[in-house]
Design brief:
8 helices, 6 strands, about 230 residues, 2 domains, disordered N terminus, two-stranded antiparallel sheet
């Protein structure tokens, strides 16, 4: 089984694209060859008309000659029509090849993106610095700045201070700290609403979900190392 896992690991997205493109080109080339091979000969009609001229020397009347001329003209028209059909088929085959290659590249890109998103979701967002500017109502996450409302900034400040103390806050506790009311007078849903609004202000849903983690039956916590947090 080690050999099998090694061969699978070598199937990088670029390699899959190359193999897929080669397979598409080969399959469509074979299909085109079979299709063109089974198309009638463009000169088949003219050959039959010429054979009629050769085998029927008695066709010397004006009517017979006129009929043969009409047949010859029909053969030429058939030949031109068939040539145009061949060109149309060729263009359609090229178009189908381009579409299949584009679909393959898009599919591989989507699979690669899904894998990267899954890796990010497993490992969490890497925050090297989180600075909360209270006066400017701005939070700086790594090299990104977010302008927050006063309520959203207050929620983030509470979470940041709790993270510095290595605490996990429930929605009830968040609402109690911000409102200044005892927990008995607060509602869990109110704290959850504050978290939702904070995530909405941060914008990117994936980033906000990974930055503000919800631990089941415990509460909310910032997925940031305490040493990376600064309150200004």
């Amino acid at each position: 089984m080690p050999g099998h896992s090694t061969s699978v690991s070598k199937l990088t997205p670029a390699r899959v694209i190359v193999i897929g493109v080669a397979a598409i080109v080969v399959i469509l080339t074979l299909a085109a060859l079979v299709l063109f091979a089974n198309l009638p000969d463009a000169n088949a009609f003219n050959t039959r008309v010429e054979q009629l001229f050769m085998e029927n020397d008695s066709l010397t009347g004006q009517a017979e000659i006129k009929l043969l001329e009409i047949l010859a003209g029909s053969g030429t028209a058939f030949s031109e029509t068939l040539a145009s059909y061949r060109f149309i088929i060729f263009v359609l085959m090229v178009f189908a090849t381009a579409l299949l290659i584009a679909a393959l590249v898009s599919m591989v890109a989507l699979v690669g993106l899904a894998r990267r998103m899954a890796e990010v979701e497993k490992s969490g967002i890497q925050v090297n610095a989180l600075t909360v500017h209270r006066d400017a109502r701005v939070v700086q996450i790594n090299d990104m700045e977010f302008k927050l409302t006063a309520a959203a900034l207050e929620t983030l400040s509470v979470l940041a201070e709790a993270r510095l103390d290595d605490d996990i806050l429930s929605g009830l506790e968040i609402e109690s700290v911000i409102s200044g009311k005892p927990t008995a007078e607060c509602d869990e849903a109110a704290g959850a609403v504050r978290i939702k609004r904070l995530r909405d202000h941060l914008g990117n849903q994936l980033m906000s979900e990974l930055l503000i983690k919800n631990i089941a039956r415990k509460g909310y916590v910032l997925a940031v190392e305490p040493g990376a947090i600064r309150m200004v």
